[in-house]
């Protein structure tokens, strides 16, 4: 328990951090969700990870704003950068972006410490299994509403919440310090989560 607390404390307070929050999504990209022309916020889990857990990059990278506008960033050193993605469906690396999966594992090392950061989707969530917005530059999120972007317009989602009602999204975040979790371990955590809620 102490090791996990120490890791979280170092991660959140140090320069190698994990930030978990709500994603602000533009109505331009996601207007079909509620038919709005104003900026909307969705309570969809998103994590920005420490640089060490990003995927190594080859040269310049392109970052995208919430509105989909690209920004080029000159290549940075890959020293100490060791992240990689792995999905419940067998996808790996940058190839997991825009795919659907029950869970996604971002694993790597911070110094000599092995880290696994897993997000598990829940079968009661709308659009299960979710689409994953998992970028090499450390933006890691479950995005059940990104159908249009992830399918290049081939699939659409027209989702609305009736006035006066609400919706609950369920995600489990697993942080493993000291070892990289394997499929059996992650599936066990995911199954337990499904059974509880």
Structure write-up:
- The chain is of the alpha+beta class and 197 residues long.
- It has one domain (18-196).
- The protein contains four helices and ten strands.
- It has helices at 2-13, 27-30, 147-150, 183-196, and strands at 19-25, 40-48, 61-64, 70-73, 84-87, 103-110, 113-120, 132-134, 139-142, 172-177.
- A four-stranded antiparallel sheet has the order 1-2-9-8. A four-stranded antiparallel sheet has the order 5-6-7-10.
- It is globular.
- The two termini are 24 Å apart.
- The relative contact order is 0.18.
Write a concise synopsis of the structure shown.
This protein is of the alpha+beta class and 197 residues long.
Keywords:
197 residues, 4 helices, globular, disordered N terminus
The major pleated sheet works out as:
4 strands, antiparallel
Global geometry: globular
Poorly predicted sequence stretches spanning 5 or more consecutive residues: 1-43
Order of helices and strands: HEHEEEEEEEEHEH
Distance between the termini: 24 Å
Mean pLDDT: 79
What Rg is obtained from the alpha carbons, in whole angstroms?
A: 17 Å
Helix content: 10-25%
Give the number of domains.
1
Structural class assignment: alpha+beta
What is the number of E strands?
10
Question: What does the oligomeric state look like here?
Answer: single chain
Strand numbers in spatial order across the main sheet: 1-2-9-8
